[in-house]
Design goal:
This protein is an alpha/beta fold and 284 residues long. Helices cover 53% and strands 13% of the residues. Strand 7 and strand 8 form a beta hairpin.
């Protein structure tokens, strides 16, 4: 993918190389003992002291150790920031062209090992994900090496671009209300039927990833789409289950088969038409 020298997003927060050492409450230790004594000997002051302690409890600081990123890590950060900028520009255009309102830009957090989000804590083992609670895409970029070495994806920069575009697709679903509707429907379904709805949601995000690639054709290079398809194949439920447990259980699928994921990415890429996004009508 052609990316050097182009605009990079300002919505990327790079936390790689940072490791938390636990939280410290401001005003702890000896000051806490003073507060306790004041409350014991001056009961009328207790409400005032409580309010001070609560305020201090909210002013937590975190010990953080940080290492210098390698030149390769810095370059990767610049690449994903460029891809993210492309998603901002392209989805703003798609929303305008289809009268979908104003596209609200998400943010992306790059992390190492583990991260806290509005959706709870997560580790790199979770893989890249989107949290609707804070409108952020979270990525530990070591995932892509795992994808290549363990699950057989070709690798390459556009495999990373595909995953970013897929996660941004979940942000689009949040803005359009699709995600909320699906979650509501799932509450009244059996586990198997709820899983089918999850599959349709994921396939639609793949479609949106392909749609983004369609609008970004001028920056594509030979082999880019093959890299995306290889990644889509590698993260199919059937491919992962076969690799991890030696057999597949279709009723437990939540993301779609390799064939489905490649199919919907290519449908978005070839059509360039957001109106063809109804995975629910075709797959249920």
């Amino acid at each position: 993918m052609k990316w050097r020298g182009r605009r990079q997003s300002d919505n990327v927060e790079d936390r790689r190389g940072m490791s938390g050492g636990g939280k410290i409450i401001a005003g702890g230790g000896g000051l806490a003992i003073v507060f306790l004594l004041v409350k014991m000997f001056f009961p009328d002051a207790a409400p005032f002291v409580d309010s001070i302690q609560q305020s201090q409890a909210n002013q937590q600081t975190e010990q953080v150790e940080q290492r210098e990123l390698t030149a390769e890590e810095k370059e990767m950060g610049e690449f994903v920031a460029t891809v993210f900028a492309d998603t901002e520009d392209i989805w703003t255009k798609i929303f305008e062209e289809n009268n979908l309102g104003t596209y609200e830009q998400p943010k992306m957090v790059l992390f190492s090992g583990a991260v806290e989000t509005a959706c709870g804590g997560a580790s790199s083992a979770s893989g890249p994900f989107y949290c609707p609670g804070d409108h952020k895409v979270y990525m530990d970029l070591t995932f892509f090496e795992e994808l290549r070495t363990r699950f057989g994806a070709k690798g390459g920069d556009f495999a990373i671009a595909y995953v970013i575009a897929h996660e941004v697709g979940h942000h689009v679903q949040t803005l359009l209300g699709t995600s909320a509707k699906v979650r509501q429907l799932q509450q009244s379904k059996s586990e198997a039927d709820a899983n089918k709805l999850s599959v349709c949601l994921e396939l639609q995000a793949d479609f949106y990833g392909g749609l983004w690639a369609h609008y970004n054709k001028s920056n594509l290079e030979v082999g880019d789409i093959e890299e995306a398809l290889s990644a889509a194949h590698a993260v199919g439920d059937d491919a992962i289950q076969s690799k991890m447990q030696g057999h597949v259980v279709p009723d437990s699928f939540t993301h779609g088969t390799s064939e489905q994921r490649m199919k919907w990415f290519m449908k978005g890429f070839k059509s360039g038409d957001i109106k063809q996004h109804d995975t629910f009508a075709e797959e249920l």
